[in-house]
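Thread: quick sanity check before group meeting

JM: Hey all, I'm pulling together slides for Thursday and realized we never actually wrote out the predicted structure for the chain we discussed last week. Dropping the sequence here so it's in one place. If anyone has concerns about the input, flag it before I start.
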Amino acid sequence: MLVERFVKKNDIFVGKLITGEELIGKVVDVSESKIKISKPMCLSLSMVETNSVNHPVVMPTPWVLGIEEDEILEINKSSFIFLTKARKEVASMYLKLTSNLIIPTSDVMKN
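JM (edit): ok, ran it. Output follows.
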């Protein structure tokens, strides 16, 4: 059963596919049974060592390697376990990776 939490056009979403992959992308359109997305990426958790200490790091990678960058994909909602709007930090990371915009951090905005 799909759990969908208020995903709408232009949202950056996160969703878990029934195959286990966790996707992030921009919602282009949503219908009753399908979702159209652009620039989909797969999220995975990896451990990175810095100063002899392991830290978990989210590693986004392109979900489909053989498509044009601006290709819009249509996926059946039945392929998802859940769909939800991405939390602010994850959406910001995604936007930095997929656009030429520079998104200021809270530290920069304080000055």
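AS: nice. The mean pLDDT is 87. The chain has one domain: 3-110.
JM: adding both to the slides.
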